[in-house]
Design goal:
The chain is mainly α. Helix content is about 75%, strand content about 0%. α2 packs antiparallel against α3. The termini are far apart. About 5% of the residues are buried.
Length: about 90
């Protein structure tokens, strides 16, 4: 088992060496909207992604919970997300 796992990791490293960690702009926009925008605006951004209807409803339920936090706390979380995005996009 250990040999198989090692072989898998080496194979992935050789085959996926061109991979990068850059954040997709659409994902970055969606994360910003999730934390900072009002629900109708976030929903319009969310609908640009093809997903089943229950996925939209569950995401909006989580958005409702996030909106219960103060805006300053949400902005602090977004600042951390922004720092990670900048680090990954270097």
């Amino acid at each position: 088992m250990k040999l198989a796992l090692s072989l898998l990791l080496v194979t992935l490293a050789l085959c996926c060496s061109d991979a990068n960690a850059k954040v997709c702009p659409a994902l970055h926009n969606e994360a910003r909207s999730f934390l900072l925008d009002i629900k109708p605006l976030f929903y319009s951004i969310l609908k640009t992604f093809p997903a089943p209807e229950p996925a939209y409803h569950s995401t909006m339920a989580v958005k409702y919970c996030v909106d219960q936090m103060s805006f300053s706390d949400r902005h602090k979380i977004y600042d951390v997300v922004e720092a990670i995005v900048k680090k990954c996009n270097q």
